[in-house]
Amino acid sequence: MLESFDGRSPQVAETAFIHPSACIRGDIIIGDYSIIWPGVSITGDWGTIVIGRCTTIEDNSVIHVATLDNWENDMRCSLEIGDYVTVGHGAVVHGTPNILSKPFTSTKVGR
Asked: Which domain does 48 fall in, by range?
């Protein structure tokens, strides 16, 4: 499901696959040939989330861009996941980390 938030809508490359049970909301950019699997939640409410090309976000992962500082100071931030990245099943990526191209991420990343 793709949802707008605060006037910002997800931008998904034509060649990307989004499973129907995934929830993608807000300021999100998903690159070519990337795959978002079932149960994934990606929320770009306080900033932009960029997911590179050929990246896989596996089942039940949660990606959210924001920190307490962003909320308290009303400032936008960004989170970038590079090309050829696999975010493992059930991972939580939160805050403003940047994950460079080609690593494998599992469990929790961020602050």
From this structure: 2-100
As for how many domains the chain has, the answer is: 1
In a domain, 22, yes or no: yes
Is residue 61 predicted with pLDDT exceeding 80? yes
How far are the Cα atoms of 5, 27, 86, 94, 109 from residue 90, in angstroms, in the given order? Answer: 24, 22, 12, 13, 12
Cα of first residue to Cα of last residue in the chain, in angstroms, is 27
Which pLDDT band holds residue 70 (cuts at 50, 70, 90)? low
What local confidence, expressed as pLDDT, does residue 7 receive?
A: 94
Residue 105 placed within a domain: no
Residue 48 belongs to domain with CATH number: 2.160.10.10
Rounded CA separation 19/38 (Å): 5
Contact by Cβ (8 Å): 32, 53: yes
